[in-house]
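Researcher: Structure for this, please.
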Amino acid sequence: MKVTAFIRKTAKKNDANALATVYFRLRDGKKDIKASSSLAINPNHWSPEKQGYKDRVALVSEDQKLNFNSEIREIVSLIIEFYTNEADSEWLSDIIAKYHYPKRFNTDEDVLAEKGVGLTSLFTEFLEKHKLSEVRKKNYRVVGRALQRYELYVRATKKGQKNFILYVDEITPDTLRDMWNFLENEHRYFELYPTIYDSIPEKRTPQPRGKNTMLDCFSRIRTFLYWCNANKKTLNKPFDDFPLEECTYGTPYYITIDERNKIYQTNLNRHLKLKIQRDIFVFQCMIGCRVGDLIKMTKGSVINGAIEYIPRKTKEGRPLTVRVPLNAIAMEIVERYADSGGDKLLPFISEQKYNIAIKRIFMAAGLKRMVTVINPTTREEEKRVLYEIASSHLARRTFVGNLYKKVKDPNLVGSLSGHKEGSKAFARYREIDDEIKKELVDLLN
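Model: Predicted structure, token format:
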């Protein structure tokens, strides 16, 4: 078996611009196959005997000659090393192409070794190793699934990206903008590309995402990338050139103590199931916990006339025990259901049914006050009837808002609501109304 390099083109003696492609020929018995390479040389510089540059060639550096001749020898060695009896012209072309363009022939393992682990795989590691509460992990998993769908979307819509993988080292501000476009319009892509959602489904059909929701998603992606930097998974920092603005919230709204009492005093004897959920809502207004914490409370959560619990948001990292003394109404509600079956503190139903019941309770109590809210999708102000937007979280805002009007000390109120000292979120629960402003100004008298 013999392998040689040759050219087929000639040139006039003084033609310094002519180029000839270098070919390789393999002969083994009756087998005689040829294939071109990406190497080229001026025909006047070619030596058939040396299969490379002539010894004396003007205007060509010694380094250029050595590199060219070395490449020919390396290709010849590869052909000899991998030669088999089944070799044909296509095989010879592939061997030469692998030498010139090795990345074209990379396996998935080669790509991973070169580019690192894909973003979605790192996201799984992040959730396993980063300290997060189960609630926050659940929220992060929603973002992780959205990123997986983004990969499938790129494969389905971008030319030449059928095998696209989102690598953390390759994310740029332009990538983030493209991801933003996808997440913002995912409710449309759900209909256009149903197979994506068959592969990575969600319990609910994708709905339009408002600006605050988008900013919340991307703040989680940013936190994940910061973790990648801190754990030496990447040096890439695409968010340096992709700043996130602050979320926009409307003026906090909540029900007054009089409205809360009106709800509690509403006659619901003909609707016993609704009456039970009404009592639970009023109890939540008295202790200010999140609905997720309310569901988990047991009869053992009441200790020496107070409710004690560790908010789910603080269980990881620095657990914070919240203790809220129970007033007369709260204690009355606890005692009313003391003999209810099981260890649950109150006969709670599902979160979804609870929120539906709260709207019906507000309607029954005649709470039709208009409030100004920010539409989460359009970010425009709109007027809504109170019973239309009532939910379990309104109980938490009612607790914080009414307490703040009494004591005006965010840290004191936060110790009862489970907010950390200096929490930015606390501002979303209380309103600095004219009454508070007047009291402050009066201090100057």
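Researcher: Any notable elements?
Model: Residues 119-241 form one domain. The chain has a mean pLDDT of 86.
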